[in-house]
Amino acid sequence: HYYADFLINTLEEWTEQLALPQLSDYGVQARDLETIVEQTSNRNNPIKLTREEILSILSSRLTGEQPSSG
């Protein structure tokens, strides 16, 4: 998971540097994340992410907390 963790850390740095808003700033709520994951496709993603990894990334963008790695 080295590359996934590296990507997440890089995106978090950019998010902080650019002061990008959290998903909650757009009205996304925790109950919406499952629906978003269900509608998400990995087909053009160079790294295949599991449902749990996608949910973790979305959760981190909702709350601003670091996703758990593993």
Distance between the terminal alpha carbons, to the nearest Å?
Answer: 7 Å
Overall outline: globular
Mean pLDDT: 86
Count the DSSP helices: 3
Radius of gyration: 12 Å
| Major sheet attributes | none
Query: SS-based structural class?
Result: mainly alpha
**Residue share in helices?**
40-55%
The H-and-E topology, N to C, reads as HHH
Name the beta content range. under 5%
Spans where pLDDT lies below 50 across 5 or more residues: none
Task: Report the strand count.
Answer: 0
Tell me what the structure shows.
This protein has 70 residues and is mainly alpha-helical. 51% of the residues lie in helices and 0% in strands. It is built from three helices and no strands. It has helices at residues 2-18, 33-38, 51-63. The termini are close together. The mean pLDDT is 86.
Task: Using brief descriptors, characterize the structure shown.
mainly alpha, 3 helices, 0% strand
What's the helix and strand layout?
Blueprint: H1 2-18, H2 33-38, H3 51-63
